[in-house]
Protein: Clavaminate synthase-like protein
Organism: Karstenula rhodostoma CBS 690.94
Amino acid sequence: MVGVGDAPPILDFSAFYTGDAAAKKKLVDDVRSCCLHNGFFQITGHNVPRELQQGIMDWNKKFFDLPLEQKMEVNKDTSNTWNRGYELLKSQILEEGTLPELKEGFYIGDEIPKSHPYFTAKKLNSGPNMWPSPTTLPDVDDFQKTSLDYYYQVVDLAKDIMKVLAQTLDLDESWFDGFVDGAVATMRLLHYPSQPPDSPQKLTRGIGAHTDFGTITILLQDKVAGLQVLDNQTKEWLDVEPTPGAFVVNLGNLMMRWSNDKYISNTHRVINQSGEERYSIPVFFSGNPDFVVECLPNCRAEGEEAKYAPITVEQAVLGGYADSYGRAERFKKDAAAKVNAMPAATGVAVA
Ligand SMILES: O=C(O)CCC(=O)C(=O)O
Ligand SMILES: [Fe+2]
């Protein structure tokens, strides 16, 4: 059982695959306790091989080591509208009042051809990936293969975690099958440069305090720490220690809404003051974009009203994006307006 002020515990997920009834029950009880408390836990004993985790992390570093012009060839903002490709440093502000974030990203998802009904209907984050050209990156085939292999294995893990979540609510483990069928999930390779010593400590973030928008997030960290979760009760920041081979799992806003706020989508952030480069890979599992989410069974007392109206997965996730990118855009416009109002020699750099 996790207690007030405890960092997210490491749970052995192998009980789901091979455990006896008692081990499975313990896993379900531990996951429930985390969902009620901080909405965060780590898992070992899953089926994603260590070599594949290492392989994708190696690619994460290799991709961000490319020169900026080459990364810009697959710029997410100019090459497509379905959220794939490279995201420049300082493109997001998730925490109101802080500086644009010290992270760059590369978005990958299911390889959806332009003939697919999700693409033609412009469904949430659905379309072909944006890979660098072989002239830019001669072994791009291996980047693509490793990324997709990793992506599909983590998506399968997300489906297994949904089975455990169903059991935490005393539902049949197949309860979420209609929701996970045709699910959309997006993964992003992330690189957090170490915070320069002269950057304002109170305002600088790798990623500002935020909650995730989707259903669950499955995150791989490298060895450099920096991820912190706000303890829901003490309001202290707890470090989520990088653990070799483990995934960090957290619930997103959609899961919280779906459970009538019984389960927690918790605030977290990254501050990298380690002096080293930090790399991580979250996979955001949204679910089937057309699935309608409305208060889950066993999440409200007899006669109690559901807090939220039904909403599709797509509507819920898109609402979250609009808020965070809008903030970064406003910041940049305001900063640019200030620069334009200043004598040239004293202009400040704007991301
Ligand atoms: O990089 C991390 O450790 C966390 C990333 C994260 O919170 C996010 O991308 O939403
Ligand atoms: Fe997050």
Q: What stands out?
A: Residues 210, 212, 268 surround fe (ii) ion (ligand 2) (CB under 6 Å). The two ends are 44 Å apart (CA to CA).
